[in-house]
Amino acid sequence: MAGLALFCPFCGGRAVIRTSSRPSILTVQAQVNCSNCGQLKAEFVGQLTNIQRAVFVEAPEVSQWEKTEKELIKEGKIKAQSNAERLNILRGEQQDLFEPKPEMSVAERIARRKSVQDR
Question: 1-50: which CATH number, 3.40.50, 1.10.12, 2.40.420, 2.20.25?
């Protein structure tokens, strides 16, 4: 658990992580001691919560900017967009692969089947 700093509630010194384990992919358990005062022996449990996946998309318009997006919005040269608005724009440009196919009439299905058989 490199990089995690825990502090002793008794002396305020930095606690030392003795052992750590991962009971699941989202949780970590660790045995913690204080080497400064020696009064702390504790178990630390950490868990990832509120997990969200970032949606990263190409932003070719950035190559045309002279300033940061924040500055351009402030000057009124571009409109601020939320992530939801950006996603709606992208979805509008892309075909929905999960949209059900339109229903074909019986006559259309027969004609299609016949054209496939005639190949």
Answer: 2.20.25
Closest CA to 37 of 63, 61, 13, 58: 13
The DSSP secondary structure of 23-83, one letter per residue, reads: EETTEEEEEEEETTTS--EEEEEEE--S---------GGGGG-SS-HHHHHHHTSS----H
Q: What is the pLDDT of residues 47-103, one digit of tens each?
A: 999 888 777 777 777 777 888 888 988 999 888 888 888 888 777 766 777 778 888
Domain edges within the chain: 1-50, 60-92
User: For the chain, how far is it from start to end, CA to CA, in angstroms?
Assistant: 64
| DSSP bridge pairs for 43 | 31
* Joined tokens for residue 42: 């504790």
